[in-house]
Amino acid sequence: LRAIEGVMITQGKKTEAISVESLDANKATNQSRQIYSKIPGINISESDGAGIQLGLGGRGLNPSRNSNYNTRQNGYDISADALGYPESYYSPPSEAIQEIQLIRGAASLQFGPQFGGLINFKLKEGNPDKKIESIIRHTVGSYKLNNSFVSLGGTNKKFKYYGFANFKFGDDWRPNSSFNLKNGYLHLTYSPNEKTNLNFEITKMNYLAQQPGGLTDQAFTINPDTSFRKRNWFKVDWNLAAFQLDYEFNSSTRLNSRTFGLIASRESLGYLDQINRIDPGEDRNLISGNFKNIGNETRLIHLYERNKLPWAFVVGTRVYRGNSENTQGESNNLSGPDFYFSNNTSSISSDNIESNYIFPSFNFSVFAEHIFNITEKLSITPGLRYEYIATSANGDYRTAYNDLAGNLIFDTVTNIKRVNNRDLLLTGIGFNFKLNEEIEIYANISQNYRSVNFTDMQIRNPNFRIDPVLKDEQGYNSDLGIRGRLKDVLYFDASLFYLFYNNRIGNTIQIDSNLYNTYQYRTNISQSRTYGFESVVECDWWKIFSDKKDYKWTTFLNIAYNNAMYISSDISAFYRKKVEMVPPLIFRSGMTVGGDKLSISYQYSFTKEHYSDATNSDSQINAVVGLIPSYSVMDLSLKYTYKKIQIETGINNINNASYFTRRAVAYPGPGIIPSMPRNFYICLQIKI
To answer: Distance between CA atoms of 429 and 448, rounded to whole angstroms?
Structure first.
């Protein structure tokens, strides 16, 4: 990204920008392996073959639903609850994205204290040169994949508009895995004068997916195309709205104020017990979550000159209020997507309800960063952020035990009221030194913070339990790197990083003496540190040998090394153990050959084996923890354009590798979630 990108400062930070339009990739399934192929250190969790949910992690952070990133669309939040439940069940379709912006952990000062940093999906806008332009895309693929995407946009005098509709349905490659998604978006811009822009956006997404459940290690080895669950379902409804004001006082000073809100729900229904147990066909378990939040973030950026050098600063505030409701209990003994509780009640007074919670949250922040250009080559960018965070938990949960004959011998309801108010000051500083006009050295260190995920505090799951006195996590990120271009032929970015975590929350293995089962226990395990090396280099060989600009022959190499370890713990079993979900080596390489009309891209990806829990268990009978073995995957894509028609096709997982990226403790498992085998797609696009 540029040093100043709109109303944000990125000088001295490790940043990346992905131009999605130019990629040869399976955009119908949001194929993350291809889209993020040149972002070093990104660990990808593959939950479904349709790409409905995005899972990215890096530097020792769990990739589940981007929960360690501040995930945004056009600059505003899209996650369920930025404080209590920062998971993103919604991701915009790749076909609608113009650019994906990433800022690593140093984004904490301007965008919130998450350890991962910022992921911002910048969506397309209406064509400024046409009153109306439409793009129609339809993709078919393996396992009955059907994906239709239609967009409409343009500019008429003082108005600009863009909208899309996306419909996706099909079967995943395993039995009991059908899905159906509907997604719509509308963006309107009104510019009453040259200085003012008023923007309104609304997003609607819902989907229903049948979930085939997880597998044990043995079942995965014998035949990963297996399902032991046919009554498990998942449903999401996501509604976003945003209003933005952009005002340019003059060429040096700009104001941006964005007000945004979310009304959403997620419901999971099915048999939650361990995957090595047969579904008895009795009442299923239903977890229902409802989320409402509203916020405003206002920024002012000002550029000025000192000693004939450009300086700049950004100041801003953020006010955010969230409210999450979570209810879990017995549902029905049917097989379909029937999302209702037994007795048609969600009251804890009914014996079918296991927990019922409300999680209010409030956040107020003030932040500032400043670019000081000391010389024409050296700049220093200090910053700070003040955070006031208030999170509460108010609800009830039921504790019940049966004897060996199945008779109820103990049943009680416990009421919980927790209020946790705290404030903190985050600081950071970045440095930038230009060796010449094309190459620069950058460095930064910034503090990070992550509040406890209250919405998971009382989920009733035989495979998973949570420490009731979890503490917030604190730490910092640091980078030292060099990046640049050589004559527009070679691009490179290589850096060292160090991430420190205090009160690191992780999973360990415990034994239930009553049920004689093992389960995961989530608690503050210890301090951890992750250091490593991230690098990407890309070369356009065609420009070396030819002056013709209509063709390209590029290769890229992406290597990331991670060393993550628990370095301090009251429990000796964790000391010097490897941090879970951290591949020590991630390697991706690829090549693109072609021109404006025809291009072909090949990619190879390798991820080294790593653990899924803090005890570094190799395997467990229930398969919710254990080793995630090394895997290699190859992808091939082709794009051909003729006038207003474009054809895209390709094969993902050419080598038909049998692998998995996650072990789920609950939905969509529990157990091993196998990734897609070899599959193909073909897309027809018409631009009108």
So the answer is: 13
